[in-house]
Amino acid sequence: MRVEGLGKTFAGGFEALKDINLEIRRGEIFALLGPNGAGKTTLISVICGLVNPSRGRVLVDGYDNVRQFREARARIGLVPQELTNDAFIKVWDTVSFSRGLFGKPRDPAHIEKVLRSLSLWEKRNNRMITLSGGMKRRVLIAKALAHEPEILFLDEPTAGVDVALRRDMWEVVRALRDSGVTIILTTHYIEEAEEMADRIGVIRSGELVLVEGKQALMQQLGRKELTLHLRDPLASVPERLARHRLTLAEEGHALVYAYDATADEDDGTGIAGLLADLEAADIAVKDLYTRQSSLEEIFVNLVKEAT
Fold it and tell me: What's the mean pLDDT when you consider all of the chain?
C-alpha cells in the first residue's frame, strides 16, 4: 500500500494532513503514533475511503482508492475505535452481515474460522448487549475480517480494556500478521507499539515526521544512561568532572552519565575518560549499570520539538 503526496484541507482552511508519503509493507505491523489532533484518524479515514483527500493519492494493491474505490476498499478491513454495534443483534449475524456488505458469497466455514481465531465461537449466538467491552472489540475485529481483507486498520484497538485483555489482544494481532494480514494500528499506549510493531511512524500537526523500524529508531534516537553507584556519597559533582555533565542522584549515592547510544564504544561514548577522571578524583565506584531510553521517552521528545 502506498500513500503519495497526500493532503487534506477541511472547510475553513484547516490543514489536517500535509504532504504525507508512506509505503506499508505486506505482512508487517505498522504503528502510527501521535498526540491528540495530530491527524492519525484523518489519515486512516482517507486511506479507507471514508474521507476524500484534497490532493495526492492512495494505492491499495495498485488500486487508486478514489477512482477504483470498490477494488481498493475490498482489500481493507477497518476496526474503529468506537463500539457502535447493534445491541440486540447476535454475534454470528453481525459478522456475516459485514461479509455481505462487500458482496462476498455466504461462507459459514470462514465465519466460523474467524470467530474461533478470536475466541468468539462460544459467543456466536449471544446478543451484543450481553458481551463485555473486550469481547465487543473482538467482534469489531471479526466484522473487519469477514470479507477476507489483505490490510487491517486498528484504530486504538485496546482503548478502554484492562491490561490482561490488552495482552490477549496483542496475541490476536500477532496471529493475524502471521497469517499474512498487514496490520496498521494507531495507539496511545506506547508499550503497545514497542511490544508489537515492526515499524513506527510518528505524525505531528498533520506531518509524518518520522518512519523507522522499531529497533533502528531506538538506536538512532535513543539515549543511554550509565548510573554509577558510589562507595561514599557526594554533596555535589566535583568541578574536575564538570566536562562530563554528570547528574547527582539517589541523595548523592549515584552519578548519572548520559551518552549517545550509537556512539563507538571504544572512544565515542566518553565512558573511558569518565572512569579515568573518577579514579584521579579518588571517587570509588562500587557498582554500575546502563539503561537505554524507552520508546515513550523518544516519542515525547519528538512531540516536544513541535512546541
Answer: 86
Instruction: Identify the domain containing residue 286 by its residue range.
Output: 223-304
pLDDT of residue 202: 86
- Percentage helix, strand, coil, to 5, in the chain? 35, 30, 35
Strands 29-33 and 182-186, by their bridges, are parallel
DSSP state of 31: E
Strand bridging mode 151-155 / 182-186: parallel
Residue 12 C-alpha cell reads as 475553513
**In a shared domain, residues 48 and 187:** yes
- Same-domain pairing of 173 and 246: no
Looking at the fold, whether 70 and 161 belong to one and the same domain comes out as yes
Distance CA 75, CA 95 (A): 17
Tell me: do 53 and 161 sit in the same domain.
yes
- Other beta carbons within 10 angstroms of residue 87's beta carbon come to 10
Q: Per residue in 238-278, pLDDT tens?
A: 988 888 889 999 999 999 998 765 555 555 678 888 888 99
Least confident of 118-122, 212-216, 217-221: 217-221
Do 174 and 292 lie in one domain? The reply is no
Structural contact between residues 30 and 183, judged by C-beta atoms closer than 8 angstroms: yes
Same domain, 140 and 255: no
